[in-house]
């Protein structure tokens, strides 16, 4: 009875703990937080000064005493203490107790948390994520692999005896998996994704034009005119990029076309497609037949690169579809398993109490 009462009052949450953005879903309420995975802190005291969007605005603009950092790299925790502070901030933000009064409810219990993690992380890295959640205030912390969460969030039939192929292109990792009967038959976690696309633009501007730009500028250019497949409408577009001339050290502005940005992105996109092809080559024939009939499903922010679905379809000779609202597929999948505990018991990687 007490456990049921706790479950009723607790705001169980699903978290897509991404390298670039963190999304938080509250059971019964939907997605309530979409914030950049960035923390600003004082270098000496390690005091947290800002988290999320406010901290992201500080990237590249902080004085010597303050640093704005991303506590996750390539989908795994690189700074445990900062990541724990980030999780505690998000958990407390959606799980505040009501004001006390003569007729107030008992103190709201700690939430059950489901977190999506890359499929290729080690046992130590898994334990780090789980410990961070428990230390941040979770009653129970369960981990599910991102490709499984993305497939569930995209409403794909993961429990059926049929092959489903999902490609989740995030900020730090690209997750590729063949799913059947509630498990991943084949999976690959490629630590090449949105961050490497941004870095490719930075390197292109440096080598081609002798110009240094920041990662944030590269990301904005990628979103504005980045593409993976030629189209007349997009190829006529251009944008002004501002940075520093490496020769003179002075500010510099250049007009860059969408064709040039596609040239910069092509090596990274080719690497992702090559891994997709390798997974297809290893897929058992019966499941491959299902994938040929059903197609490949793209999720994650990287799938929003214009023309990526056409490029993947051309290279693999298979139909390719982009999931509805691909940025939220993983966190929506985490929310689905919070509603269906039987499904959670099948797909979770690990989980437990404090």
Which CATH class of the largest domain is shown?
Alpha Beta
CATH topology of the largest domain: Nucleotidyltransferase, domain 5
Poorly predicted ranges (pLDDT <50, ≥5 residues)?
Answer: 1-9, 97-106
The side-by-side strand order for the widest beta sheet comes to: 3-2-1-9-10-19
Structural class comes to alpha+beta
Number of helical stretches of at least 4 residues: 13
Q: What is the H level of CATH, i.e. the homologous superfamily of the largest domain?
A: ATPase, nucleotide binding domain
Radius of gyration: 22 Å
Strand % is 25-35%
Largest beta-sheet details = 6 strands, mixed
Pfam families: MreB_Mbl
Family: Belongs to the FtsA/MreB family.
GO biological process, one term: cell morphogenesis
Binding site for ATP: 171-173, 219-222, 301-304
How would you describe what is shown here?
The protein has 354 residues and is α+β, with helices and mostly antiparallel strands. The chain folds into 3 domains: 2-148 and 330-353, ATPase, nucleotide binding domain (Nucleotidyltransferase, domain 5, 2-Layer Sandwich); 150-192 and 267-326, Nucleotidyltransferase, domain 5, CATH 3.30.420.40; 194-265, Actin, Chain A, domain 4, CATH 3.90.640.10. Helix content is 40%, strand content 27%. The protein has helices at 2-9, 53-56, 80-94, 123-135, 146-153, 194-209, 215-225, 232-235, 258-282, 285-294, 308-316, 329-339, 341-347, and strands at 13-17, 21-26, 30-36, 39-42, 48-51, 66-69, 72-73, 76-77, 112-117, 140-145, 164-169, 174-180, 183-190, 211-212, 238-245, 251-257, 296-299, 320-322, 348-353. The strands form 5 sheets. The protein has a 6-stranded mixed sheet, sandwiched between helices. Strands 13-12-11-17-18 form a 5-stranded mixed sheet, with helices on both faces. Strands 5-4-6 form a 3-stranded antiparallel sheet. Helix 11 (308-316) links the parallel strand 17 (296-299) and strand 18 (320-322). Helix 3 crosses helix 4 and helix 5 (146-153) crosses helix 12. The two termini are 21 Å apart. The relative contact order is 0.15.
């Amino acid at each position: 009875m007490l456990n049921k009462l706790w479950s009723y009052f607790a705001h169980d949450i699903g978290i897509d703990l991404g390298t670039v953005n963190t999304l938080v879903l509250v059971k019964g309420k939907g997605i309530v937080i979409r914030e950049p995975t960035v923390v600003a802190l004082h270098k000496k005291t390690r005091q947290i000064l800002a988290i999320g969007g406010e901290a992201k605005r500080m990237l590249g603009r902080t004085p010597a005493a303050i640093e704005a950092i991303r506590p996750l790299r390539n989908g795994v925790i690189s700074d445990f203490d900062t990541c724990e502070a980030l999780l505690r901030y998000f958990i407390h933000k959606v799980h505040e107790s009501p004001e006390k009064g003569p007729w107030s409810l008992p103190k709201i219990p700690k939430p059950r948390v489901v977190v999506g993690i890359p499929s290729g992380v080690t046992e130590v890295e898994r334990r780090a994520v789980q410990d961070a959640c428990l230390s941040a205030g979770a009653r129970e912390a369960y981990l599910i692999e991102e490709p499984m969460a993305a497939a569930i969030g995209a409403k794909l039939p993961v429990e059926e005896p049929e092959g489903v192929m999902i490609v989740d292109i995030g900020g730090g990792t690209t997750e590729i998996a063949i799913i059947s009967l509630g498990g991943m038959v084949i999976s690959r976690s490629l630590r090449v994704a949105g961050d490497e696309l941004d870095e490719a633009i930075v390197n292109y501007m440096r080598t081609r034009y002798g110009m240094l730009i920041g990662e944030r500028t590269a990301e904005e250019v990628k979103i504005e005119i980045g593409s993976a497949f030629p189209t007349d409408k997009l190829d006529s577009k251009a944008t002004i990029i501002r940075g520093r001339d490496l020769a003179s050290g002075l500010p510099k502005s250049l007009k860059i076309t969408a064709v040039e940005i596609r040239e910069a992105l092509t090596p990274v996109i080719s690497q992702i497609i090559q891994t997709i092809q390798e997974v297809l080559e290893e897929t058992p024939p019966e499941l491959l037949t299902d994938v040929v009939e059903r197609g490949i499903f793209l999720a994650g922010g990287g799938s929003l690169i214009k023309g990526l679905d056409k490029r993947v379809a051309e290279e693999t000779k298979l139909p390719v579809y982009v999931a509805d609202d691909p940025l939220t597929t993983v966190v929506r999948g985490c929310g689905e398993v919070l509603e269906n505990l039987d499904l959670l018991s099948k797909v979770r990687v690990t989980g437990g109490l404090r």
